[in-house]
Amino acid sequence: MITRFEELDWQETPIGELTLRRRTEPAVGQEIYEVKLGDEYLMSSLFTVAEEELSNLGLAAVDGDDLSVLVGGLGLGYTAVAALRDDRVSSLTVVDRLGAVIGWHRRLLLPVSAELVEDPRTSLVEDDFFALVRTAPPEDHRGYSAILLDVDHSPRHQLDPTHADLYTAAGLRSLDRYLAVGGVFALWSDDPPDDEFMVEMHAVFDDAVAHVVDFSNAVTGGTSSNTVYVARSRGGLETTSGSAPRSAS
After folding, report:
1. Residue 149: CB atoms within 10 Å
2. Cα 123 from Cα 106, distance rounded (Å)
3. CB–CB of 187/193 below 8 Å?
4. Is the pTM of this model over 0.85?
5. d(Cα 53, Cα 62) in Å, to the nearest integer?
């Protein structure tokens, strides 16, 4: 089978040249969507299990109904759409630094775009998630039931070195201010569980655990693994529903 590439979009962004393309993957005989930043592959629709499990595992740890969820990193949309499939979710705010990525979904360029943007619970916000959680939440902010983050490759391998502070106890405490009491923070990582990062997690959160998510790799013919960290706020704010950053127009 001849592999054919179709470039769906190319844009210069603050972090480099961003490309969205569609191609046929001979190993599975189907179309897949890929995102590249310069020459580096960021994500592929060939592997979505762990991105979906970020939502599934994170929300499974949240008690109650009428949940408000904040997703850091839109990407191909699989984490966000998995959250919407939980009927307890009443509002979903997705923050992405790159307006280009939000534009892909508004133009319905990706397989789950329609499910994401046509759901009235969804708000897409162009903002820097890391800068956002460094600042104090507004006084009327009531706290998110869950914050799901999938931006960097791992706590040790960031797309932008300015993200590194989040993965310290101080950075996690700053993020924790945006969670309701008992709210859950969940993080995707491409690396195996990191013992040093778990020390930072335990310093801030309760019930911190690193889940290893295995999935079949059709390209290698074997099994690949990602990690999903899940932990519960011991402080946070006082309710499980809350305000969100203003939606992008």
Report:
1. 24
2. 11
3. no
4. yes
5. 14
Query: 55 is written with which tokens?
Result: 């939502």
CB contact at 8 A, 31 and 22: yes
Query: What is the token pair recorded at 56?
Result: 């599934």
Going residue by residue through the chain, which has 249 residues, state the pLDDT in tens, using 9 for 90 and above. Answer: 445 778 888 888 887 889 999 988 776 777 889 998 887 888 888 889 999 999 999 999 999 999 999 999 999 999 999 999 999 999 999 999 999 999 999 999 999 999 999 999 999 999 999 999 999 999 989 899 999 999 999 999 998 999 999 999 999 999 999 999 999 999 999 999 999 999 999 999 999 999 999 998 877 889 999 999 999 999 754 433 344 454 443
Pairing of strands 67-72, 30-37: unpaired
Whole-angstrom distance, CA of residue 152 vs CA of residue 37? 13
